[in-house]
Amino acid sequence: MPRIARLILGLFALLLAAQTSVLSADSWPGWQGPNRDNISPDTGLLKKWPEDGPPLKWKASGLGGGYSGVAVVDGKIYSMGQVGAATGGYGAQPAPRPARAGAKAGRGKGGRPAQNHGGAAGDCMVVCLDQQTGKAVWSRKVGRGDPNCTPAVDGDRVYALDRNGELTCLDTADGKIIWHKSFTKDFHGHMMSGWGYSESPLIDGEKIVCTPGAEDALIMALDKKTGATIWTGKPPANLGPNGLDGAGYSSIMISLGAGVKQYVQVVGRGLVSFRAEDGKFLWNYNKIANHVANIPTPIVKDDYVFASTGYGAGAALVELKKVGDSVTAHEVYFLPGNKVQNHHGGMVLVGDYIYMGNGHNNGFPLCLEWKTGKVAWNGGRGPGSGSAGVMEADGELYFRYQDGMMALIEATPDGYHLRSKFMLPTHNAESWPHPVIVDRLLYLRDQDNLLCFDIAKH
Closest Cα to residue 62, out of 79, 83, 41? Predict the structure, then answer.
């Protein structure tokens, strides 16, 4: 075999091995999974569930309050929760289903739950559980109040953000705190509205990238090992009339659009982008911002960014183009809120189609053609009520509704096909944390509880 042919085959093998490593089915290192796209690489999953749901392997309790999701890495589960003085310890309970609880949290403005602001707030803890049993490994206080962040795991460290903007780096082995930064005290950051910091940090190489929401540090990059500031991203004074100044409730995505590596985020004034190398502001898009809470994480692919927010704002696709040493964003289409809006619960791009729960405070199943904005199908109300967290695995969509209903919907643009549904055995508050699938196990966080279901096709 010629030398050049051997070299090409060798490079291809290395690329394939690297790709296989990235898509390993035994890891969910943080928000939206291994590729931050709401897609699990697991296969061999059930295509239909029993009427009362797939087998419950275990149920853990004592995680505390809040809407944090879970990260799963190397046999351990990481999450966050608010624990008060009267709250019991961490532990796992046997699999038999308890009676469903119907209690719901008190509600704040905009249809979201009222949350504690200092004072009576309990301790915010990072918790580590054993993946196979749900039993506690360790827990560590990192702040106050009920958290919304999903921790980010990177090697021997885990990074967590409390609702007050306290960012903490901990050792995965025992929870020992390595370093800490305050978005408000160290960077003068603030939120667009009053539900507290909710983003899940992005780990990118040697950097951790976050959104303080400050005038001169809308987003920032820190050294992930030391917490030292690498750069802060300062936006222009005027980002448009829609929305409010400060950080939103979204999480940062990496884009290579127009050949430039950049960090794309939805903040209080809509979409923004900063160059990954040095934090230089590149572009913004204001039209999808609302004045209450901009929540969903944007979708990035090739030279395009798709974003949607609730409260009547709508959805849009922009195309990125290189201009000199900068990048500009050009609107491909805009869809008004009465046609398409994702309040929260997120969106997933599978092939050329976006699947989401559509409507303000609703999770009506919707399939949207990515490049055109054309609705492929609308599933009507769907099997559950309220907003719906969505992910994809093995050709199926997992919709988790606010009322505790879980639905399995075929991920196809050919039409709305509901495969299965079941009501969760616990319903401690709004059922908002996104589903997570690792090792053919479905993890669903419900405030103080974490439910682990066996969804393998046996």
Answer: 83
